[in-house]
Amino acid sequence: MDIEITKKRNVKGVVNVPGDKSISHRAIMFGSIAEGETIVKGFLRSDDCFSTINCMRKLGVNINIVKDEVYVKGNGMYLHDSHDILDAGNSGTTMRLLSGILAGQKFTTVLTGDESLRKRPMARIIKPLNMMGAEISAIDDNYAPLTIKGNVLKGICYKTEVASAQVKSCIMLASLYADDETIIEEPLLSRNHSELMLNYFGGNFESYENKIVCHPVERLHGCKICVPGDISSAAYFIVAASILPQSEILIKNVNVNHTRTGIIDVIKKMGGNIEIKDERVLNNEPVAEIIVKSSCLKGIEIGGEIIPRLIDEIPIIAVAASYAEGETVIKDAEELKVKESNRIDTMVSELKKMGADIEATNDGMIIHGKETLNGALVDSYNDHRVAMSLSIAALKAEGITKIRNAECVNISFPDFYSVLNVL
Ligand code: S3P
Questions:
Q1: Which of 62, 92, 130, 310 has a C-alpha 20 to 30 A away from that of 328?
Q2: Where on this chain does phosphoenolpyruvate bind (predicted)?
Q3: Using CA atoms, how far apart are residues 60 and 107, in angstroms rounded to an integer?
Q4: Nearest CA to ligand 1 atom 15
């Protein structure tokens, strides 16, 4: 599907963004290995999250979807052999987290994914899981399909090479099957939804800055999870309202967990006008309303500890920087190269087609902002975040922008274009 977008004067109104993707995946997986029923309200009905549901169903978990509520009848820690290949589709979270659960099972499973996922590095989970006692084989020891032979696991002390919540969560899930405690240390703190939610399910995980001590427990207990709105989806509207004059939007019920709010800090530092209101706590997660008004953004330097707090938002930050005054430097973001696409290359090449002054570097990009860009024919590379970021760039560009393969927004935000139209 190709989408055509023309210049808009402003965006105004109230936005409800869909449920958080990371939290939706986790609620289904943790509910599946818990005892009793888990009810997930506000579940994100997107392709990625359905990949998780389909895999858990194949492993014998009874899951019923009624509108935006999902009922999971937990199997307890041990699942059933699917006798079939599991397909994680485009979802890195499904593949990496599920591997942690499969490592502790009493059977062998083959786990694959789509063309993009089969190119993403898995050695980062294979290494710690093998150390714990699982037996995992992969193409070139790094790429899916993964064959995971579950085993009785042992606790390990492990320092991850990258700040990745998927790697951390994978080891945390495997630690549930270990006979003693596991300690995980990350170079920088990544999103901490697993820590918060596993403790809500009755797990015993202690967090110390970027270190976690995982104590094995006999069982997890099913519970009710209300999924807040996804700040990664809100980010597109935060930037749209910031760059378009006379805009004002209210984004309701957004997860404002500190490990995810780097986008708010960056836009504020660029001179953006953002207010966080009515903060409250929902299932251990902070939630709030976000008000964004137009502003004149200025270029800044982005790097270091903030990178894991905004890793998925760098494509839309590149758009904000393309319309900001002065230079923006994004560094320490090599991880972008191994996302759903190489997001340094894809964003640089497509924003250049629109006339942006943007250069790729080894670990990020350098952007000199302009007052306006031009509509162009651009490609999403089947990467949902690239498609949505280019759509926001198109709102302020002269002429028509045509985005090829825009249906990939279904990965995380199936209603993206209808929400954008309403605004
Ligand atoms: C996610 C973690 C991040 C993020 C991804 C979702 C998660 O990946 O990019 O979209 O749900 O844990 P990494 O852990 O690989 O950085």
A1: 92
A2: 21, 92, 120, 166, 343, 385
A3: 13
A4: 164
Residues touching ligand 1 (Cβ under 6 Å) are: 22, 92-93, 164-166, 169, 190-191, 311-312, 335
Token output for 14: 């109230």
pTM, entire model: 0.97
Distance from Cα 163 to the centre of ligand 1, integer Å: 10
**What is the spatial order of strands in the sheet that 143-149 belongs to?**
86-87, 108-112, 143-149, 135-139
187 confidence band (pLDDT: 50, 70, 90): very high
Nearest by Cα to 234 from 283, 179, 177, 291: 291
Confidence (pLDDT) at 69: 94
For residue 338, the ligand 1 atom closest to its alpha carbon is: 15
Q: Amino acid identity, residue 164?
A: S
Q: Known binder of ligand: residue 332?
A: no
* Domains of the chain by start residue, with CATH: 3-19+228-422 (3.65.10.10), 21-226 (3.65.10.10)
Q: How far is the CA of 117 from the centre of ligand 1 (A)?
A: 13
- Contact criterion met (CB below 8 Å) for 409 and 384: yes
Rounded to the nearest angstrom, the distance between the alpha carbon of 122 and the centre of ligand 1 is 13
Task: Give CA–CA dist 257/254, Å, rounded.
Answer: 9
**Any idea what the Cα angle at residue 205 is, between residues 278 and 215, rounded to 5°?**
165
Strands (E), 57-200: 62-66, 69-75, 86-87, 108-112, 135-139, 143-149, 157-159, 182-185
pLDDT per residue as tens digits for the range 287-312: 999 999 999 999 999 999 999 999 99
- Ligand 1 atom 10: residue of nearest CA: 312
pLDDT of residue 411: 96
Q: Residues 353-402: pLDDT tens digits?
A: 999 999 999 999 999 999 999 999 999 999 999 999 999 999 999 999 99
Does residue 7 register a pLDDT over 90?
yes
Query: Catalytic residue at 357?
Result: no
pLDDT in tens, 222-265: 999 999 999 999 999 999 999 999 999 999 999 999 999 999 99
The mean pLDDT of 275-282, rounded to a whole number, is 97
Count other C-beta atoms under 10 Å from residue 414's C-beta.
16
| Closest ligand 1 atom, residue 164 Cα | 14
User: Is the pLDDT at 67 greater than 90, yes or no?
Assistant: no
The DSSP result for 134-147, as a single string, is -EEEEETTTEEEEE
Angle at 119 between CA 135 and CA 321, to 5 degrees: 130
